[in-house]
Write a structure and sequence with these properties.
Blueprint (H helix, E strand, L loop, with lengths): L14 H10 L2 H10 L4 H24 L5 H25 L9 H8 L1
C-alpha cells in the first residue's frame, strides 16, 4: 500500500506516527501534541479529537458513578467503549485516515 502524503510536521515526526501518539494516553497526549504541533492539520485534528473524546468519556465515567446502582453497571460499559475507540482511533490515525467521530470530530475539524 502506498503511503499517503500527510504533510510535514513541525516536530520532525511522521504525521501518522504523531497522530497515533496523540491517542496513546488519551486526552493527556492529545493536549501535548495539540500544543507542540503548530503546522500539520492532520496531527492537530487527531490531537484535538483525542482531547475531546477521551476527556468527555473520562468525565462521564466519573459522573455515572454517582448514580446509585446504575452507575456501577454503566461505568464498565463506558470503559469498554473507551478501549474500543482507543484502538480504532490509533489504527486509523496510523493508516493516515482522518476518521471523524460524531461531535468531537466535527469540533476538531473546525479547530485544527
Amino acid at each position: 500500500m502506498a503511503e499517503k502524503d500527510l504533510g510535514k510536521t513541525s516536530i520532525g515526526m511522521n504525521a501518522n506516527i504523531a497522530a497515533l501518539l496523540s491517542y496513546l494516553l488519551g486526552a493527556i497526549t492529545g493536549i501535548i501534541f495539540y500544543i507542540i504541533e503548530k503546522e500539520n492539520k492532520f496531527v492537530r485534528f487527531h490531537a484535538l479529537q483525542s482531547i475531546l473524546t477521551f476527556g468527555a468519556l473520562w468525565v462521564l465515567s466519573i459522573l455515572v458513578l454517582f448514580i446509585p446502582f446504575l452507575g456501577i453497571i454503566i461505568a464498565p460499559l463506558i470503559y469498554i467503549l473507551e478501549m474500543v475507540l482507543w484502538i480504532i482511533l490509533m489504527i486509523k490515525a496510523y493508516q493516515g485516515e482522518k476518521f471523524k467521530l460524531p461531535i468531537a470530530g466535527d469540533i476538531a475539524e473546525k479547530n485544527s
